[in-house]
Amino acid sequence: MKDSVDVAVIGAGHAGLNAVKEIRKVTDNWMLLNGGPLGTTCARIGCMPSKIAIHLADTFKMRDRFDRYGVAGGDQLQLDQTTALEHVRDLRDTFVDLVLANTTDEMDAAHLVDGYAEIVDAHTIHVGDREIKTDNMIVATGARSIIPPHWADKFGNGILTVDNLFDLDELPESVAVIGLGPIGLEIGRLLGASMVGPQCEHLAHLICWAIESGMTVQRALEMPFYHPVIEEAFQDALLDLRNELAQSTTKRRYIFFEPRVAPCTGA
Ligand SMILES: Cc1cc2nc3c(=O)[nH]c(=O)nc-3n(C[C@H](O)[C@H](O)[C@H](O)COP(=O)(O)OP(=O)(O)OC[C@H]3O[C@@H](n4cnc5c(N)ncnc54)[C@H](O)[C@@H]3O)c2cc1C
């Protein structure tokens, strides 16, 4: 079977779906090719379930501070992991349904093709026995976890990735998180790790927010934190910074938090 389209988009994640949204404004002769489950990585196994799980973990963790707020009995609280993880999956499924309803559900078979695409040359794509000719390709195939083969040999099904983490009924008693990027930090945090790296994405977001709001370090430390996930990291970083500032004698000390008030113009 041969098709010819103006634009072929490979991958129906956020990137591919947004590309299609723009393409539809200029032509109806497009095709979206997707292998694997629809619903986007973000909604199925990424941003959305992770934020729900982190929120849940942080809510439970709050029990350690209840006595500071005058609430007694925090140490008696129990977490039913099975129910908690079911809640994560329920909300995740709602998000996936919303994504599907607003995107691929309303696409017909002439536009949405199920299967992994293989780029044959600059104008030809194969999906199974289907050949698609096009002058314009958008490759939006995302990323996926890779397990080195010798790890799989050694640990068997003891290896978790975001593909299966949120499908567990109970979390393992101990887990080593490998990879200290934003995703590793988030997963570590929701599993109960108490340390996060100073380079993490969320910390950067918060620092940008503090800069945009023209805050001093002191003021930022007084603020309620809108994202509990990075509260500790942000506080630690700010406390370190305050200590450094206390010892500093140069104007450079204002560079992060009061750029509009006292921009750094040199030493
Ligand atoms: C735990 C976790 C938390 C995250 N948190 C955040 C966050 O807070 N904020 C944020 O911005 N990002 C976050 N991300 C990252 C975000 O989820 C991804 O960056 C984003 O979903 C990538 O979108 P995409 O469209 O590029 O790819 P995807 O959504 O992965 O879509 C790619 C699609 O292409 C398909 N495909 C692959 N190869 C082929 C092929 N050859 N032919 C046809 N189809 C193919 C795939 O099966 C998939 O359906 C998080 C990710 C994870 C895992």
Order of helices and strands: EHEHHHEEEEHHHHHH
Sheet of most strands: 6 strands, mixed
The coarse silhouette is globular
Q: Specify the number of helices.
A: 10
State the name of the first-level CATH class of one domain. Answer: Alpha Beta
Bound compounds, each kind once, are:
flavin-adenine dinucleotide
User: Helix- and strand-based class?
Assistant: alpha/beta
- Total number of β-strand segments? 6
Helix content: 40-55%
Strand order of the largest sheet: 3-2-1-6-5-4
Output the radius of gyration.
Answer: 24 Å
Mean pLDDT: 81
Beta-strand content bin: 5-15%
At a glance:
With 267 residues, the protein is of the alpha/beta class. The chain has helices at 14-23, 41-44, 47-61, 81-102, 149-155, 162-165, 182-191, 201-212, 217-222, 231-247; strands spanning 2-10, 30-34, 112-114, 117-121, 124-127, 130-139.
